[in-house]
TrEMBL record, chain A:
Gene Ontology process terms (BP): lactate metabolic process
Presence of the UniProt keyword DNA-binding in the record: no
Name of the featured protein: Iron-sulfur cluster-binding protein
Annotated source species: Adhaeribacter swui
Pfam families, per the entry: Fer4_8, LUD_dom, LutB_C
InterPro entries the UniProt entry points to: 4Fe4S_Fe-S-bd (IPR017896), 4Fe4S_Fe_S_CS (IPR017900), FTHF_cligase-like_sf (IPR024185), Helical_ferredxn (IPR009051), LUD_dom (IPR003741), LutB/LldF (IPR004452), LutB_C (IPR024569), NagB/RpiA_transferase-like (IPR037171)
UniProt GO MF annotations: 4 iron, 4 sulfur cluster binding; metal ion binding
Entry keyword annotation includes Protein biosynthesis: no
UniProt cross-references to Gene3D superfamilies, sorted A to Z: Alpha-helical ferredoxin, NagB/RpiA/CoA transferase-like
Keywords in alphabetical order: 4Fe-4S, Electron transport, Iron, Iron-sulfur, Metal-binding, Repeat, Transport
Stretches for region Disordered: 441-460
Domain named 4Fe-4S ferredoxin-type: residues: 296-326
Automatic annotation (TrEMBL), chain B:
Positions of the LUD domain: 36-192
Protein name, as recorded: LUD domain-containing protein
InterPro entries for this protein: FTHF_cligase-like_sf, LUD_dom, NagB/RpiA_transferase-like
Entries under PANTHER family matching the protein: LACTATE UTILIZATION PROTEIN C
Entry-linked Pfam families: LUD_dom
Source organism of this protein record: Adhaeribacter swui
Amino acid sequence: MHKTIAEHPSLADKFNKDEERVNWHDQTLWWVRAKRDKAAHTLPEWEDLRNLASQIKHNVLSNLSEYLVQFEENALKNNIQVHWAADAQEHNAIVKSILQKHGVAQIVKSKSMLTEECHLNDYLQKEGIEVIDTDLGERIVQLAQEPPSHIVLPCIHKKKEEIGELFHLHLGTPAGNADPQFLTAAARLHLREKFLTRKIAITGVNFAVAETGEFVVCTNEGNADMGAHLADVHIACMGIEKLIPERHHLGVFLRLLARSATGQPITTYSSHFKKPRQGQEMHLVLVDNGRSRQLGREDFRNSLKCIRCGACMNTCPVYRRSGGHSYHNAIAGPIGSILAPNLDMKDYADLPFASTLCGSCSNVCPVKIDIHNQLYKWRQVLVQQGYAPAAKKAAMQGMAFTFSHPAFYRMAGKTGKWFMKTTPFVVNNSFNPWYKQRDMPEPPKESFHDWYKKNRKQNE
Amino acid sequence: MNSREKILQAVKQNQPEPVSLPHIPFFTPPFTNLEQKFTKVLQSIGGEVHRVSSYAEINQILKKEFGSKTIFSSAQELAELMDTGLDYKNAHAFADLELAVVEANLAVAENSAIWVTEAMVQERALPFIAQHLALIIQPQNLVATMHEAYARIADADYGFATFIAGPSKTADIEQSLVLGAHGPKSLLVFLLDREIA
Ligand code: SF4
């Protein structure tokens, strides 16, 4: 049974109702993208680094089963307890069992897109367990009972006045105060109390090193560290694709990650967890949840190289104008649109179509994933398998017929032009998904076919 | 078959032909003065740099800025600033710590990240939980890039270690940069020439 999920165009419509907000969202993300450019340009070897990162990840994917075994062996030697989860359900159950073993019903969590993907918060909440997200942006969307809309900037869609209002309601800050400095200070106090009283902390993992059995967590706020170092039990959750072979490879990835994400030279903290501290318990959950399946899809395998920097979202003209929530998936934007159909082709059939295929995403990707090519390939797979989104299906079927019947194509072209000229309102309406937020281009005076016929004659 | 075997089998079946690892060169950085680069980058991300020639000088600066507030220091030379009333065995006791001073021996010029290992701090939580953080680093321990840093720590053993670049920060509220999210609100770095014993 499939739940009916609203498709990207209708969700984008909702976001587009507030034009001023769309412009602001668009400009903010473009500003972050520009900072990325500046940071990239300070390194003459930027393109070499992207190539190296991509090659290292290629080596990882081609030896993943060996690296997983090597990592496990070393992590166990380091006294880290390793768990394997085939899917989201099993991941959540493992986390719950650790909490139950310790009789803990309140935990802190640092940002982890994997736990979002597994819907861990919902699951634990239903089990009566309270999860406090400690990344400020994540805490804000948690208070608003929304999912994050961006993997690096979780509440990028929210205005400070809305955040002030949320804090007034939940943290007791004075009504009407929307000063970022003031609100951050209030959150600091609120979350410090949680860090100091919670016995179990969950963190994500940015990189895990097969050679040493350690894992690295990158944050600017230091929330992963505050949580993990003050808790009796640290649970780290990671997708199996996060492995890298050797410690020194971190040099390549840490040079790329923050510069690509926000334009910073490096995140404030790049913490290497190798062994639990004295008296502490450390768990690591390795999660598949469809990754091994994606590994087998040659056309989409490269998507597993992703280091979750968010650069492809910041640059994407569709993401910037439709908002992260319109992707109805834990990971929004271009890369999310490749990963989601792997999880469920039917529910996410609309996402590979939420792109202009302009290629900007592939241009900024620090691990050189051919993002726009993969989106294009997903479209073909989805149409072939009968999963294309309803509106696109009709249009594409029409297109397929038109292209395979040259005479009809010429006639349709003429008719279309005639329609656009004489009755533009028929084309410029909401039944045409391309008319969303833009005017249709003026139809050319003559078709290429007509022009070619005429000119060829002249040249002959 | 348990999940471990199931995952490993699926991965093995689906992974492509083995591809070898590339060689990672050091690259020649576009700057030569490491100290200047380090200082510039750290300042640009909200840190403060003091060029000093002795611990006595550090002592003086800290006394002026923090007075009699609760201070922890890993440096013997700064013992007189230490708050002896703290229970240093308990990370939670650091919750009210005003300043932590830690000596480090590796820092990266390109991004001003300073390598701090468990052995240098009393408790892992220390450099995160203190309201302010001061790090002491000797200029001769600066390297140009992350590649050189990892060449130095390639085989190092530690339980926990971290690169720290600047004070704790967030820009989650409308992208306005705020220093002091959960961790230290400020980072002071003392560049100290090796003292002659
Ligand atoms: S696909 Fe590339 S650009 Fe997008 S988040 Fe992943 S690493 Fe970054």
